[in-house]
Amino acid sequence: MYKKEIEAYIESHKQEMIEDICTLCRINSEKMPYREGMPYGPGAFEALNEALSMAESYGFSITNYDNYVGTADLNVKEHQLDILAHLDVVPAGEGWKETEPFEPVVKGDKLFGRGTADDKGPAVAALYAMRAVKELNIPLKKNVRLILGTDEECGSSDIAHYYAIEKEAPMTFSPDGAFPVVNTEKGGLNGHFTAEWTPSGKLPRLVSINAGIKVNVVPGKANAVVAGVDEESLSKAAAECEKKTGIRFEPEWGEGTVSITAIGESAHASIPGEGNNALTGLLVYLTELPLAECEQMTMIRRLLELIPHGDTSGKALGIAMGDEISGDLTLAFSLLKVTDSGLEGTFDSRCPICATEENVLEVVRKNMAEKGFTLHNDSMRPPHHVDGNSEFVKTLLRAYEDYTGRKGACVSMGGGTYVHELKNGVAFGAAMPETDNRMHGADEYAVIEELVVSAKIFAQVIVDLCS
Predict the structure, then answer these.
(1) What is the pLDDT of residues 47-106, one digit of tens each?
(2) Are residues 345 and 312 in the same domain?
(3) Which pLDDT tens digit goes with each residue over 294-341?
(4) Are residues 178 and 195 in the same domain?
(5) Which CATH number characterizes residue 67's domain?
(6) Domain boundary among 375, 399, 422
(7) What is the pTM of this model?
(8) Are residues 264 and 166 located together in one domain of the fold?
(9) Are residues 247 and 108 in the same domain?
(10) Are strands 445-447 and 425-427 parallel, antiparallel or unpaired?
(11) Co-location of 92 and 205 in the same domain
(12) What domain range is 429 assigned to?
């Protein structure tokens, strides 16, 4: 019902939709230090208020929840459906070639720029779905609300603030994953650990390691500073390690020290096999150098035994597992700082439904303790699952099938989305299953036609669930 009208409307507003996405993507909305009235800094504040102004200009009733979250309501009727999207982004990172991160550009069938896929593009597609229903005067008996958050990438404290005030809708979808429907999300363990030792002044030595930008990003770069190592040893180790790991090593000489940058390939921590971890590659490199024996290097070797380069399943930690519904456990070593007297590290593990605190958390704690590391976690994030046979999920799949001609099915993902804590929330769009949109990496992009068809699908879902 109304398919022809919806398709015609979205097609006629395609260029306007792309321009609105670009407007939001020009704003660097990564999390920044708090300012008064700006809980996540000026970038997120600007993006939220720009998006709310946009929604208001299209005739929607808007509400700003203390600059944590903003909403746009289609009508004032009974609350039925929430569409939960976010306007914050991961840091720009390095390695962009198609454009600068916050200078969105159309090239061929793609829109490049940070946030085009995650999640500003999908957020605007949802807004245009609501516009279509509103401006086509399609009668609804219930309300749909677009919820725009600003802290999804750094813990979702924005949504905690919102749901402390508002109730969940009976149904929620977030265009923050992929089609068809993600009804299962893995649980997680962000393993935070430390170790300490007695400093050593022996040369040659490791001065420091600084690696990683966020817990949910596989490091594309990692840095170490060493002292007292000759150029021949550095070059020899670099050549050998590049053959082993595929990681490149670039030295920069200083006064008495050398700063070494390991260069791999970044990826989202939920799919660590898609990247090449510069952090673990750097540890391999350091163990190849003729550094003086000391407690520090002993602990570096032990750490590499627990999380070897290329081990993205947690096998060496003793937690490799999987199940039919949610797939295999994944692990990404994402953050590490090392000084002369200790280290602090964090790994990101996405855990299937079969994972428990007994077979993951306590196993990691025991195996790390045996090698001198202290794990500080006392709990795990539970998995999330919504019944694939519910009328809600069936409606989403039906709309997906009608507008794509593809067979719809429920899938599991490793990345936790905005709906992870919601009783009846699923991820739905806005990329096709085969699309690698480089989310969280350099040259992030959205396929324009996928955004267009997403807007059509979302509009149909609104009609089907709220009529």
Answers:
(1) 999 999 999 999 999 999 999 999 999 999 999 999 999 999 999 999 999 999 999 999
(2) yes
(3) 999 999 999 999 999 999 999 999 999 999 888 999 999 999 999 999
(4) no
(5) 3.40.630.10
(6) 375
(7) 0.74
(8) no
(9) no
(10) unpaired
(11) no
(12) 3-186+384-466
Whether residue 357 is found in the same domain as residue 254 = yes
Tell me, yes or no, whether 79 and 101 share the same domain: yes
Q: Which residues, other chains included, contact 279 with Cβ-Cβ below 8 Å and sequence gap of 6+?
A: 211, 212, 219, 222, 262, 333, 334, 335, 336
